[in-house]
Amino acid sequence: MASVLRVEDARRLELRGRTALELLGGGKGPDMTVRIVEVAPEAPGAEARPLHVHDGVGEFIWLLAGSGTLHTGAGTLAVEAGEGVYVPAGEHHKVSPAGEVPLRLLCVFATGDIASRTRE
Which of 11, 44, 54, 96 has its CA 20 to 30 A from that of 113? Predict the structure, then answer.
């Protein structure tokens, strides 16, 4: 059955260096996780957020607002609002904002429980 996803119904997750609103997932419902993620700029002098990896599942990221850098084990790529990124399963990565403006991302995973498959 189709359903409407609303931000006000999302589960709020405080993750290291970012906040996520989980619209779908958490091991409940369909075999998919959908999150709206806000990544704040790292504070000067703070320990940098490490790369993370998703075991056995890729991630599609759509940049809703802001610009920044996609960091992977293979290097970096500049990214900005209106662009999408695909990160294959098992590839270490993170997206960090450029400057003082947070990034807003739509992240989609083909599993209903991404938390159990994520390592930092």
Answer: 96
